[in-house]
Structure formats: structure tokens, C-alpha cells
Design a protein that fits this description.
Length: about 375
Amino acid sequence: MSVMQVYIKENVVDAAKRRISDVFDNFDNICVSISGGKDSTVLCYLVLSEAHKRDRKVEVFFLDEEVDYEATIDQVKYLMFDLYPENVTPMWFQFPFHLTNATSLTEGQLIAWEPGRHKEWMRTKDRRAIQHWPYSKDNIRIANKVKGFGFYDVLTNFQLNHDNTCFFIGLRAVESMNRWRSVAKNPGYKDWYWTTALENGCVNAYPIYDWNFSDIWRFIYENNIRYNKIYDWMWKKGMSINEIRVSSLIHEKSFKAICELPEFEPKTYNRLCKRIKGIQTANIYGKDSRVMKCRKLPDAYETWREYRDFLMATYPDPDKLPIFEKRFSRQLDNEYVARQQCRQLVLNDYENDLPVRNVPDPREESIKKWRELL
């Protein structure tokens, strides 16, 4: 019996435009989040085009981490103030919040826009940005008091201060299946499977979730959309598709960008070295398999467990150490898990953004299987 094939006449561009149009039909309050990257650029272009057609205003939200490419900030300014300025309510946040610094164990956090250190900031604040928390501080939610008021706390509290609002987010399933699974399993608005319900009648919407990497760049080319020039430099450098990303320069998932930063934006690199510790080390060892990648065991140790115990014994932050101790106590004690634990310790990943795959050692399981067979 042959398998029935199902075809649809709608391409991803038409589907995204239809979803965005449906949101405009159902919500008076709309906000689109941008990062300065390719996905949020395309999403912002689509949303603002619809807003312009309907003579509507939407919020454009950008949380400024301070430690960004200069090209990223230029792109944000373009989207907020040059594309369709008459249809934009700028929500550019430039105020203090905590960021994880994966490049240093002695300075494990950066307080972006830290008061009293304005001479060390990566750049001066923009007069058009919101420079203080614009809402009441009485009911601010903080997920973890030890970590402080962090990046995701800002996002959560920003959404909590809105009612009946749709927040557009440029998440694509192909790029992050785990993130897509986490949002798709939650109930959305009406029967819109590409949305997630929030509090206060709000929803998150992901209208380009089904776009591929090539769809993004084809749309940018065909519509002559300005994009972040860091992508051109990455492409010319010969970086792979998976490596061509624009994100925070110090986060555990993206700090490797510091390896090319002196070549791409030397002034940004120099300012970053003065702003926070660990940058020069990350520049030298960010892609080294023995150091920050933890792919090869350092020569001084015979096992990953021995190396993990050394890192635990010498971990410099007494406030964060109990987080690792509690987490590791619930995990298996084998070499496969221990290597991943080493990576978390080296990158100061107390937030568990690079979660350990807590399973029996695949090598031991394979050896056991072959011994039984032979």
C-alpha cells in the first residue's frame, strides 16, 4: 500500500503573512522582539509592513545587553527608527540587569549598564532608549535571587506589565527543536498551534517557526532588506551555517564569537577587554578542545571525574558552588556525565543553559554489548 502524500499550496512566506494578519485582526496591542539578527530582522520587517498597511502602531522591543557587536546596534537602530518609524513605539531597554559571563570564573556575572561604571561601558547610552525600569517595582518577579535580576527576568516582567498583547518572537523550529518543543506543547490562542498562552490575556506568537535557513536569506535578498553585516564577515571567514549566529558575546552558548571579534570589530574587542574579565582567554582558547570546549581531557588528569573534582575543589565562587553540588548529586557518576559537568564548571554555567545529558556512558554500554556478543 503506497503512502499518501499531502501537498499544500501555501509557502512559508504566505503562511507567515497570514498568521501576522490574523494577529492584527484579533489584538489591539502588538509587540515584536528583535535581537539584531537575521530572524528577528525578517520578522520585524513582516510585522511593520503589516502595521504600515493598516496604519497601526506596534512596540518594537530590544533588551540591550551592552556587550554586543556594533553592527548589531546599527541594525537595531535601523529597524526601530528608519524602516517604518511612524508605525513604531520604541522599547529599547538600557538599564542594569545581570548577565552570565562564561569567559571568567572570578567575574561570573556582568551587570549590564552598571551604575557608577559609565566610563567602562562599551558605549554611551542612546538618548532614545529607556534608561530606567518603566514600570512599578513593587511586584517584580525574580526567578532566582542568587542570580539576581537577569535577562529572562526582564523579559518575564516586561510581559507581565502588558494586557491582551501579542508578542511576536522570531523562533525557528529548525534552529532549535528543543525550544520549539517547549513552546508547542503549551496551549496557545484559539487553535493557533504557533502561539503560547501567557498571563493577562497575552500570547507569544512564532509566525516564522517553519522557515528554514535558506528561506530567511532568500526573503532578505528578494526584498532587499538591510541586515546585520556581521553575517557577511562570518561568511567570508568560511564559517559554517551552524556557526553563523549573532548573539551575546559572553554567554556560554555564544562566547566563541570572541575568537573572531578582533578581526571583525577590533574596537569592540578592545572595549570588551577593558569592560570584563576573561575576554583575552576566551579569544585564545574559546575553540580549544582541551580548555573551554572540554572535548579532550587535560594531560594532568586520568579521568573526567578526577578533573571534575579538581574543578569543584578550586571553584572560586562560594555562592554558586552549592548550585553545582546540588545539581551533580542528582546525576549519574560516569565519565560521559562527568565530561559534561566539567564543561558546565569551566563555562560557569550555573544557570544550566547547557544541560547535562544524564544517561549511562554510551562507550561503556557499547563495550558491554560487544563483550556479550563475542
